[in-house]
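ingest -> validate -> predict -> emit
validate: passed (alphabet ok, no gaps, 163 aa)
predict: started
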Amino acid sequence: MSNYLEKGYLEVSDIIHSFPSEDEFSVHPVAISECVQEIPCNPCVSSCPTKAITMEDISSIPIINYKQCIGCGKCVQVCPGLALFLVFKNKDSYEITLPYEMLPLPKVLDEVYLLDRTGKRVGTGIVKRVKQVEKNTYSSLITVSFKEKSLIYEVRNIGVKNG
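emit:
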């Protein structure tokens, strides 16, 4: 793993080996975990309706079975570390569903900046869905679409234009 503890973020090389195949995220969205800290935490496991997320013990890194994951996003909403997201390839574009805790929330069809793990703009995308927070302890979910496949490994936040 790269210098995560020094930099505070992962590099693409840290996650590419555990990323699902395009076949696995072309049927429906699947959850991806970038959780790297072995701390007592498991709301992703308890929120998963298909038991696709498992951990050896309460402080282990979550493991996602991509074949069992139905892409519901419940794990993304409850992760306190904002370390989970969904990826999906539809007919002509890619989609990422991210936890979002900023205001204002973007609106469907808004064009937004796509940001990498460092906050650098790496492109633009279109908001496809906005699922507002259900409880104060949950994150809202924003789904953005874009054409470039390489961005599925980089985009981890959005910036609202004119927000």
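The mean pLDDT is 92.
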